[in-house]
Structures are given as C-alpha cells and as structure tokens.
Amino acid sequence: MSLLQEEREIILSNEYVDAFDFAEATEFVTNASKDLFISHHFKNKSRMLVQPRGGFPTYRQQYALYESFVDANVDVLPLTIDSNTRLNDYATAKKMLRLSEENDMDMLNGYPLVTHGYRTTRKMITHFNKPVSLRHGTPDARLLIETAIASGIFEIEGGPITYLLPYSKNFPLDKALLYWKYVERVCANYSRLNMPINRESFGPLTATLVPPAITIVIQLLEMLLSLEEGVESFSVSFAQQGSMNQDIVTGAVLRKLAKHYAAEIDCADAAIQLVYHQWMGAFPSKQDFAEQLINLSTVIASMVGADKIITKTREEATGIPTKEANAKTVADTQYCLGILNGLPTIVDEQEEEILTLEVQAVMEAVFNDPADTLWRKVFNSIKNGIIDVPFSPHIINQNAMITIRDASRNIRIIERGNVPIPERSYDYERAQCDLSKDTTSIVNNIIRDIGIMQ
Fold first, then answer.
1. pTM over the 0.85 mark
2. Does the annotation mark 376 as catalytic?
3. What's the N-to-C CA distance of the chain in angstroms?
4. Is 86 a residue of the active site?
5. How confident is the model over 119-166, as pLDDT tens digits?
6. What are the start-end ranges of the H helices in 45-171?
7. Could you tell me the CATH superfamily of domain 3-339?
8. N or C: less crowded end of the chain, CB within 10 Å?
9. CATH 3.20.20.240 domain position(s) in the chain
10. Which one from 53, 86, 405, 416 is the annotated catalytic residue?
C-alpha cells in the first residue's frame, strides 16, 4: 500500500464519515458521465461558461436551487460549503443540519457535504448531470475533497495560499501547504481514470485593493504546486478590480505567464483556463446599481476572453441570496454574453510590460529561495514578505505593502514592503498617484477606494 493510500484511509476513518468504499468510488469515477467533468466542457466549449455560487443546508433546498439554475440555463453548478465543515467541525455541522431539517430554518450558511455523505449527494449530482464546482475556503480540505470526488464533483476550488491568507488568522501555512499537496495527489490519481479533475485557484484573495502582480504570482504558484503533483487541468482566476483596462491587462498577463511557467516545468500539455469573478468587494445596496455592476462585469469578462465567469447577485449587500436571485443572475449573464459579439481587442503594451516585470521579479525571488522544494520556497517567501497580500488577517502575512487607486481607478503600489518590485515598475506605479497629500488624506482615500462600488 502506498503512503498516500495509508494517509487516505486514516483521513476517511473519521467518526463522522459513513464507511468509505475506495473500490466503489474508483469504479464510479471511471464510468462517470463526461458531462460531469468541467475539463470536458472546457475542451469542447464554444463560448464562456457561466457558474453561480450557492449552497443551502438541506438536500431538499440544494436540489431546488439546482432546479432553478438549470431553468436559467446554467453551465456549471456550484456547491458552496458551510463554515463549520470548512473549519473541520463536523460535529457542529451534523447537529446544525438536523436542526435545519427539523425546524425548516437555515442553521448553516452552506451545504454540509461531509455530513450528507457522498452516497446521498451523488444522487443529486448525477440526476442533473452537469459539472459541479466545490467552493469551500478550507485550509485542510482532505476529507472534504475525498467526499466531493466520490459524489461526482470534479472541480475543486482553492489552494494553500488562496484559501488561507484571506480567511484564516492562525492556521499554520506549512500545514496548509502539505494538506493541499494531498489534495493535488488525490485529484491527479482520479484524473487517470476518466477525464481530468479540474483544480481552480481562488483569485480574489481578500478582494481589497490587491495589486494584479500579487494576484498573478499567487495564481502561478498554486498552479505550479498543483501541476508538479500530476494535475492535468488547472484554472487560474482573478476578480474584477475596478478598472476595465487593468482587468484586460491582468487577464492577458496571467494567461501568458501561466502558459510560460507551466512549460518551464515540462507541463506545457496541461490544460490551463482563465476564470473571471464578477465584483467581489463591497456591493452597492441599491439593487439596480448592483445589476449594472454585474452586467459590466460580464462585458469585461468577454473582453478579457475568460473561459468561465463566476456570478454575483443583486442581493449581495443584504445577505445570503435567494435561489430566485441567484437564478436571475445566471439568466441575465447568459443573455448579456449572447449579445456581446465583435468586441474590440484592447492592448495596453506599457501596462502589460510593467506588470510582467513585476510578476517575473517576484517569481524569480521565490525560485531563488534556498529551500529544496517549491512548497518550502513559497512558505519562506510569504513569511519573509516577498509575497504580501493587502488586508490579509493571517499572522504570517507582513501587510507592509500599501496600495491605492489612481485617478483611473487602477490599483497602484505606493509602498512595496519587502516585495521585490523592480525600480522601474515601482517608480511608474507611484508616478500615477498623487502622493503629495498628508498621511490622513491618503488613509481616507484608501478607505474610500475599498468601498468604491457602494
């Protein structure tokens, strides 16, 4: 028995898991419908795929949500996991699911997949026969992804950086990196049976003034950590940033460098997709404005040339969206995509050059770390502030980088901290901003910039 299989059997002996049948799960994945694999749809798509978010506690509610999505012509179904399961607190998830079912009231903020189990969940997923994406925010997703893949969920979002630095304060980064190495290996093993399991990184990070260079570096590193374990299909992603031009530049540089760095580790044959998130920051409370923002995001996604768009709803500012609001966004986004033909190609060579220089400099610094493995190099680079995510709550993140918006709403780096931004790029970034104001005024501008869409 391999070391990985030994670890899998330990993980799946958890008291809150029904007996896991490895042979049965393997047979299921081997014979699963190609339509359940988003990698199959990416390979054969003629247009951008549309995927909403959404997760409810009970099986009945999740089933009804999927019915609404299918009626709205969805391409990819979501399964958003509750926060107790995200924190590996399966005991509380089990108790809250029972209370949700007994009282017909949502006591969880998502679907407790481990509690429902793969045998139950698989019935729902195979019934709808559409690809499902697991959205969860979990530093230790080992048990969750085993349950997900056995359920028929063949896209796993997240990673050791993107599902830690924005969400956690104290969870150890080195543990997250090792736990996600397990995830990558399991996905790679299952990928040999049928179509590839697709891995997707979480590009929005804190969704708060994160400069494109940091977003891209983290996307590239999570991609490389995944590909080196044998994953064959990976999606890099980022979210709407507030400037259409900066989004188009970010998409172009991210796509170009993802292919470059994949080829550098002899993974040029891997399928690399680009995913765009509709606005992830503070949403306008006026629902009409929210709809305008969503429609604009769809236009930008088309100009970026995204392979998939992840939608938001008009109810984002007021709470968990209803299934009706979620379905409406899917239908509206599909309609918008259907009329976006013949968009002009926009290229900003100067901005692309500046951003490419920044990303390459940070990547070089990571690779030059003396550690013997990529995951250790990544760990050291975050610890040393070579990678620094603005507004991350995690204790290992230095939070020394300061960003602000320029007059065109581009996110600019005005203090680089320990991030090795080249002098030419740094001078350019600062030159775009009015830094003659006093500190209080600049802080007030940052606060304004955070809520720019409200």
1. yes
2. no
3. 55
4. yes
5. 999 999 999 999 999 999 999 999 999 999 999 999 999 999 999 999
6. 59-71, 83-86, 90-103, 113-116, 118-128, 142-151
7. Methylmalonyl-CoA mutase (3.20.20.240)
8. N
9. 3-339
10. 86
